[in-house]
Design brief:
This protein is mostly helical and about 450 residues long. The protein has a single domain, classed as Up-down Bundle (Growth Hormone, Chain: A). Helix content is about 75%, strand content about 0%.
Length: about 450
């Protein structure tokens, strides 16, 4: 049960919602997934390394260091702000504030010209936008346990993640068809100044902002507790201090968070440097990167949707083992393949397991989190996902620098997967008993 490790925790009343509210919650994944797909993975990261930085290797390292700084800031702020949100009661205003910051900071990346003098500008705004994107996810995820009926919690989480991959896919298609491929470029964009590629930042900002609106309009939030802002801040800080003091009462949660911290570091690093790895190691141009990203999102969406049922059937822990184990095997193969064809053959199946690894992680946290501490626990969940997230990109960048090849950097990611799975072994599977079907519209 969710409060197995939290004696006396007060229940948080579930929110009454319908299919429209649940669909709108899942739809936020559609909106925000445009950011990691286009900006931090496939397009803008590769543009920075190949066109803005002084050279590919330096660009790879600089991008990794910026994402590490962003992750460190998230690790420090996430648990505290989550605890404050729990004290105040509502989570959606926090999602709104960080969504706005992410949208504006992403739009500012448009001004990054293909010159080394714009390195600092690009790194500053990508770090800020990534921080805001991740912070919004804390409060968005914290709404899941109150919205989803227990028997289909895994499916709702999986469907949300699957819809996110579809959103990333469609955004990539739009970027490819409307911005990257037309010759001459549409809208009077200057190819010599890389404006078609830079305009993908504007596309993502518009996409993120526009498609998040149904979430704010139709998904209900928990009620405000009527606590003044300063009081909520004091209570939130006191709560997070109390949680750390009572850490032994949350043994299962703590073990899981440590495991999650390790294997998610590998996942985040793979997402962060995946586009750069494909571009530099296999010589993919922007068109090829977009096509690979589209194909990857197809497999990832299918995997996330399908494993939603598997999550509810065999439990989220078992689902994580299947997904991360498969990623480890496929990643090991990709270290040694030489041809672009083999990269496609063994790279595409990675997508099948990306979504389930993340979705089941969210589901397991929702099932383990003590009631009435959801945002705080998802803040710690984000902390676990980011506390050492600077380490993965840093090691990738460092090893790439030392050995002069990204293949050596990729090998460091597999170690995170293996250690994380070993630490996950004692965590309970936290399967839920059967419950009534989802609410009718």
């Amino acid at each position: 049960m969710a409060n197995a490790d939290a004696p006396g925790a007060a229940e948080e009343a579930p929110v009454t919602t319908d299919r429209v509210g649940l669909a709108a919650w899942c739809g936020y994944d559609w909106a925000n997934s445009s950011y990691p797909t286009v900006i931090s993975t496939f397009v803008f990261a590769a543009y920075f390394a190949k066109a803005v930085a002084v050279d590919n290797v330096t660009g790879t390292s600089q991008w990794a260091y910026a994402m590490s700084a962003s992750a460190l800031a998230l690790a420090l702020a996430g648990p505290v702000l989550g605890a404050i949100a729990d004290s105040a009661g509502r989570r959606k205003p926090w999602v709104g504030a960080f969504t706005l910051i992410a949208v504006v900071a992403t739009a500012m990346l448009w001004f990054t010209k293909p010159e080394p003098s714009f390195v600092i500008w690009a790194l500053a705004f990508v770090a800020l936008s990534n921080f805001a994107f991740e912070m919004g996810g804390i409060f968005y995820n914290a709404m899941l346990p109150s919205l989803a009926p227990p028997a289909i919690l895994g499916r709702i989480s999986g469907w949300g993640w699957g819809l996110g991959y579809v959103g990333g896919l469609v955004c990539l298609v739009v970027a490819l068809v409307v911005l990257i491929r037309p010759q001459p470029p549409l809208f009077g964009l200057d190819a010599e100044a890389a404006e078609p590629v830079r305009a993908t930042a504007l596309l993502v900002a518009l996409w993120f902002g526009a498609f998040s609106l149904p979430f704010f309009l139709f998904t209900p939030d928990t009620r405000s507790k009527g606590v003044p802002a300063l009081t909520a801040a004091r209570q939130g800080v006191a709560s997070i201090i109390s949680t750390f003091r009572r850490v032994r009462e949350y043994r299962s949660v703590v073990i899981y968070l440590i495991s999650h911290m390790i294997y998610t570091d590998g996942l985040n690093t793979l997402f962060t440097v995946g586009g750069i790895y494909a571009a530099v190691t296999f010589g993919m141009d922007f068109n090829e990167l977009l096509l690979f990203g589209i194909a990857m999102n197809v497999t990832a969406g299918l995997g996330a949707f399908a494993f939603g049922w598997i999550d509810d059937w065999i439990g989220p822990k078992s689902t994580i083992f299947i997904a991360v184990g498969a990623l480890t095997v496929l990643g090991a193969i990709l270290i040694f393949v030489e041809s672009k064809t083999l990269f496609w053959i063994f790279g595409l199946p990675l997508g099948i397991f990306f979504g389930p690894a993340q979705s089941a992680s969210r589901s397991l946290m929702a099932r383990l989190a003590p009631p009435n501490l959801y945002a705080e626990m998802f803040g710690l969940f984000a902390l676990a996902g980011k506390a050492t997230a600077f380490l993965g990109p840093f090691l990738f960048g460092l090893v790439t620098d030392l050995f002069g090849t990204q293949r050596a950097g990729l090998a460091t990611i597999l170690g995170f997967f293996v250690v994380g799975l070993v630490l996950l072994i004692p965590v309970p599977n936290a399967r839920r008993p059967a419950a009534p079907p989802p609410p009718a519209a």
